[in-house]
Structures are given as structure tokens and as C-alpha cells.
């Protein structure tokens, strides 16, 4: 006899359940690029996700810690989990120490970290050779460097056992104090990392660096808020000249305008392949940093609304296209330039001749981005891709930075666009 009871059907399987574990691991790794804690979140969904997460080291490549938030035991558990699941693969670490209450005495902060976080510091000392990239977010430079000294205090510094840190980023949240233009702090911590090839300084006092501290440095980024004191051009040149291997340079800061006759650089500047300048005094600074090896050039003039700004920058670009001195003493132009982006300047039709001539004489130029309302170019190059932006949400805006770099956040008005700011 029919009882009227219908057995419940099993719930339909989610489409992701049919994906092979290797593909799911790739998806989980991609999720980790947006959120460092993705392994914990994904592993809590179900048993299959947890098994996949804990069996693929690639998912655990970013570790995010916040000292001062919660107990040291919780931080040790989290760090230990990442070091264990990452295996022998290199790890990227982000540490936020802005909420720690370390003493202001310069001689006691290193001991303070070791005293208040002894087991965490010991864990990092044991695994420091496995850290490939390190980002420190702090309210002062000294606190960041004292933590760096604490976790590397017992590490070997001989050439055969040097630390394998390749990328070092500092994010300072406090305002940069006014100081004499010629003063630069000396941080000996840089001498511990001979393999360092990427350095980003966000809202950071420009340090004094000399070879061999950054002899292998290839990428340098200096980002400062508009409210910070202007950065002396001579200090920039001295720092760049200390990095003979530098090929990518990014400066986002106000620049002080010393007369060119007062600038003397004892050593040669490196041959850059990529140069990004978002500064004032753009024409004069560009003349100092441009080289015949440039393949990518990105320029944003913070004073672009001044009279004749477009004409001045166009004239400099035309002159650089005509003649630049190479390292062997011969002359050349921007013949290798493939990508050119200009923003912040207004160029009326009467002064477009410089830009027309310049762009016509860049033989390898493939991509050009210009202000739509600021340029009236008549040149025709079928092989050239021209992108017109009208500001706002376009080139050089915060939206554009977010689109290009994915990770974007704000600290005291500074756009933190480095790859670790999404942690």
C-alpha cells in the first residue's frame, strides 16, 4: 500500500565538486593573490577543500601577521601553519606592527620585540632563510628596522650562507618629519641582504645606501604623499647611483627644484629600462634620469597646469629623442622605447609640434597613452596603438592604479599600490 512518503533526494552536487584537484588548487592559489588568509577560509568550506588546500604548498605562499592584535600564541600558530604547509618553497611575509607599543628608546626596541614576542621571533629566526619577500608596515622607520634586526640577529651573514630575501617593502604610516635636505639615516640592516633585488619605500625617509648594500637591486620604488617635504633631487641621484644593476625606477613624490648646475653625481647612473615619474619639476628630472636603454616611460606632471607645461615637457622629450649620451660616450636617442604614457599636462595645438616630431621619431614605439583633452596630434602610425584618457577614472587616477596593480589601499593619503597591500 502506498504510504505517501517520498524519500528525500540527495542534494545536487555543486559544479566545483567535479573539478579535478589540480585545477581547484590553481583556483585556490589565485584566490590567495587577493587574500593572504584564503587558505584558512577555503579549508573551512568542506573536507575536500581542506584536503586540497593542505596538500598544495603553492596555496600558502603569502603569510599575513599583525603584531599587537591578539595573543602571541595565535600568531605563532598561524605562522607555524604556513611554514609547515609551504614546505621548502619560498614564502612572502607581511607584518603589521603599527599597533605595538614599543618604547621610543632607539637602543631598547630590538630587545623589546625579543622580550615580548620571544617565541615568534625565534620561529622567524629559524625560518628566515625561507622568506623570499618581506613587507613591514610600521608607524616609524626605526621600529620597522629594529624588528628586522630582531628576526635576523642570529642569522649567518657570510657570503656562502647569506639570507635569501629578494624583495623588501616598507610601509610607514606616520608623517615624514621635516629635516635638513642633506640628511639621510643609515640603516645597517640592508647589508644583511646581498641578494636583494626589489626595494619599495612608501612614506619612508630616504636612507643613505652605498654599494655593496644594494649592488644587485633591480627594482626601486619611492612613494611619498604630497604633504611630505619635497625630496631633494641630489638625494635621489645618490641613491640611484648606489644601485648599478637598477633597471626599473618608480618615483611618486614632490621634488625640490635645485638648479642643474648644483647637481654633481660622482658615479654613473644605471641604464634604466623602465622609468615611472609622478612628480613636479618633471622636465628637469627627466633629463637627468633618461637613458638610451629605456623601453617603458610613464610620466605624470604634478604641476601640469602651469603655463607652457606641455611645451616644456614636449621640448625635453624631443631633445631626448634626438640625442642622449650612452655609457661608451657615443650618442643615441630613445630608439628602444616601446611604451610611452603621458598625463597631467595640457598641450594646445600650437605646441603640439614637439610631440608630433618626438612620436614620429620613436621607431619601436608600440603603445602610446595620452590625455584626450590635452593633445592634438596629427601624426599617423598604423603600427602604433594610441589610447586616449580624459582623467578621472583614466590614466594616473586611483582607479587606473587599482586596475593596473589590483591591490590598492590608502594610508594617510598615500596610494599603497605594491603587491602586498591587499593583505
From TrEMBL:
SUPFAM superfamilies: F-box domain (SSF81383), RNI-like (SSF52047). InterPro entries: F-box-like_dom_sf, F-box_dom, LRR_dom_sf. Residues 13-63 form the F-box domain. This is F-box domain-containing protein. It comes from Lentinula edodes. The lineage of its organism: Eukaryota, Fungi, Dikarya, Basidiomycota, Agaricomycotina.
Amino acid at each position: 500500500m502506498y504510504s505517501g512518503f517520498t524519500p528525500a533526494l540527495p542534494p545536487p552536487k555543486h559544479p566545483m565538486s567535479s573539478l579535478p584537484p589540480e585545477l581547484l588548487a590553481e583556483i585556490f592559489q589565485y584566490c590567495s593573490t587577493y587574500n593572504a588568509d584564503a587558505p584558512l577560509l577555503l579549508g573551512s568550506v568542506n573536507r575536500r577543500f581542506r584536503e586540497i588546500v593542505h596538500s598544495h604548498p603553492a596555496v600558502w605562499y603569502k603569510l599575513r601577521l599583525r603584531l599587537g592584535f591578539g595573543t602571541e600564541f595565535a600568531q605563532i600558530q598561524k605562522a607555524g601553519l604556513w611554514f609547515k604547509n609551504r614546505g621548502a618553497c619560498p614564502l612572502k611575509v607581511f607584518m603589521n606592527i603599527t599597533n605595538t607599543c614599543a618604547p621610543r628608546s632607539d637602543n631598547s626596541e630590538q630587545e623589546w620585540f625579543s622580550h615580548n614576542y620571544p617565541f615568534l621571533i625565534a620561529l622567524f629566526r629559524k625560518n628566515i632563510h625561507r622568506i623570499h619577500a618581506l613587507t613591514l608596515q610600521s608607524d616609524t622607520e626605526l621600529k620597522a628596522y629594529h624588528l628586522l634586526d630582531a628576526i635576523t640577529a642570529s642569522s649567518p651573514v657570510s657570503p656562502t650562507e647569506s639570507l635569501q630575501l629578494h624583495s623588501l617593502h616598507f610601509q610607514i604610516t606616520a608623517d615624514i618629519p621635516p629635516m635638513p635636505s642633506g640628511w639621510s639615516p643609515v640603516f645597517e640592516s640592508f647589508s644583511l641582504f646581498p641578494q636583494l633585488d626589489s626595494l619599495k619605500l612608501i612614506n619612508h625617509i630616504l636612507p643613505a645606501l652605498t654599494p655593496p648594500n644594494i649592488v644587485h637591486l633591480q627594482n626601486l620604488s619611492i612613494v611619498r604623499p604630497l604633504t611630505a617635504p619635497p625630496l631633494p633631487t641630489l638625494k635621489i641621484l645618490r641613491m640611484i647611483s648606489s644601485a648599478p644593476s637598477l633597471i626599473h625606477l618608480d618615483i611618486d613624490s614632490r621634488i625640490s627644484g635645485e638648479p642643474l648646475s648644483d647637481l654633481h653625481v660622482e658615479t654613473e647612473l644605471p641604464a634604466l629600462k623602465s622609468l615611472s615619474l609622478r612628480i613636479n619639476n618633471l622636465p628637469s628630472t627627466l633629463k637627468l634620469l633618461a637613458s638610451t636603454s629605456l623601453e617603458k616611460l610613464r610620466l605624470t606632471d604634478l604641476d601640469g597646469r602651469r603655463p607652457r607645461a606641455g611645451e616644456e615637457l614636449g621640448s625635453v622629450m624631443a631633445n631626448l629623442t634626438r640625442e642622449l649620451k650612452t655609457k661608451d660616450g657615443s650618442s643615441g636617442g630613445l630608439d628602444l622605447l616601446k611604451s610611452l604614457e603621458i598625463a597631467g599636462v595640457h598641450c594646445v595645438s600650437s605646441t603640439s609640434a614637439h610631440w608630433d616630431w618626438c612620436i614620429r621619431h620613436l621607431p619601436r614605439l608600440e603603445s602610446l597613452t595620452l590625455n584626450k583633452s590635452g593633445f592634438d596630434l596629427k601624426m599617423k602610425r598604423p603600427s602604433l596603438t594610441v589610447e586616449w584618457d580624459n582623467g578621472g577614472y583614466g590614466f594616473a587616477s586611483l582607479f587606473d592604479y587599482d586596475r593596473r596593480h589590483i591591490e590598492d589601499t590608502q594610508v594617510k593619503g598615500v596610494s599603497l599600490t605594491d603587491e602586498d597591500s591587499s593583505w
